[in-house]
Design a protein that fits this description.
The protein folds into three domains: 125 residues, NAD(P)-binding Rossmann-like Domain (Rossmann fold), CATH 3.40.50.720; 130 residues, NAD(P)-binding Rossmann-like Domain (Rossmann fold), CATH 3.40.50.720; 94 residues, 2-Layer Sandwich (Alpha-Beta Plaits), CATH 3.30.70.1450. It is built from 14 helices and 26 strands. The strands form six sheets. It has a six-stranded parallel sheet with strand order 3-2-1-4-5-8, with helices on both faces. The chain has a six-stranded parallel sheet with strand order 18-17-16-19-20-21, with helices on both faces. Strands 9-10-15-12-13 form a five-stranded antiparallel sheet.
Amino acid sequence: MYIIVVGAGAAGLYIASLIVKAGHRVAIVDESEELAEHIRLQFDVGIVVGNAATPRVLHQADVQHADLLVATTSSDETNIITCIMAKELGAKKTVARVRNPEYSGYLVVGAESPNAPRKVIRPKRLGIDLFVNPEIEAAKEIVNILSSHYAAPVQEFAGGRIQIREFKVENEATIANKPVWLINETLSEPCVVALIIRPEEIKVPSNNEIIKQGDHVCVVATKEDMDKLGEIFNHPKLPTKNVVILGGGYIGFHVAEELDKLGVQVKLIEKSASRCQEISAKLKRVAVVQGEGTDRDLLVEEGVPSSDAFIAAAGDESLNILAGLVSKNLGVKENIVLVNKPEYIPLAQSVGIDIAISPLLLAGSRIARFILHSGAVSVALLANERAQAIEFTATPTAHITKGGGKGVKLPEGAIMGAIIRGDTVIIPPGDNTVQAGDHVVMVSLSSAIPSVEKLFK
């Protein structure tokens, strides 16, 4: 595939790095000559310097032969215009990063007369196949974690019927120091232990692999069974009733807004006085406090030690990690911090952060299905990009359907998590028998993905 990435900021460079790792041809377009020189030293990609919202620059980037264009500049309007023009000039698919949620909605225009049909303006009709908002993705993830029974990220497949959730093994009495096969045999709810994540390694476990206390495991199960299974791996948490948020930016504001709707008592700490006033005017039930998030006395005064969760969502990831550690030291039940760079997630977790979230990683997961796997229905990046969960549709000619009653041999480093056959969900798939038309959720280490893709060709 040939893919053009517009904008060489953090989001653009991260997406470009994903594409390069997948072996695709990439060109990056940015107006800064200085950034272009920096990129040349980092990546083996084409560089075009100029404003991508002009036909001349897009043509210079060979947009007419692009399989995908991803616009990631800091301007919503520039990204939208770039995608519209790129589609007109021949790009097969386009993705726009936007912050304003009004741009990604549908607009219903009134008819000229009562009997005339109303006109519906859809983003895709304008030439944009996907809107991605990293900040909104992060806010949704935080709210989902806080409203769940377990403090664990979750990915959904097959229209929400299948979930993949990462648990930390805390419940020693039920699961620690036991092999995977014994866990599968003793559980009343079927599941697949797809990944074991340790500081020194990540692996797709064999049936004889021993699960250890403190391991992180990725589990595949139906949505209905996942909460019951969670009790096997770690301790369910009490409902979230009160939360303190550091940072009144885009993410902090939206998390506060959504938690407030759920009836959670929210207190938001923001450094800027003018931003505090703005948030107070919009979120009447949220207590807004002006102050610094690393001020220990302030955090104590504002009730962080007795809060159910502390969310560090300031613009500075170093500040977020520091504030998260201070909140943990004060005794908060759960801390969630935002980091810009996905590679900081293991570091943050190793020093005492409960959950570290990267908006870029979440946005990358949404864009990944356009980039990484031809024919994939859905894709999620797992274990800090070191593994992926991919939902494929098995075609009549796919190699994976040729195994007869015994199924096909899967590549080392890959496991089948679920088969969805019409209204039936099969977990675990047992003999791996796949029929044409089945949706199959595969979990694979990055090294095994090319072999997995071949099964579905």
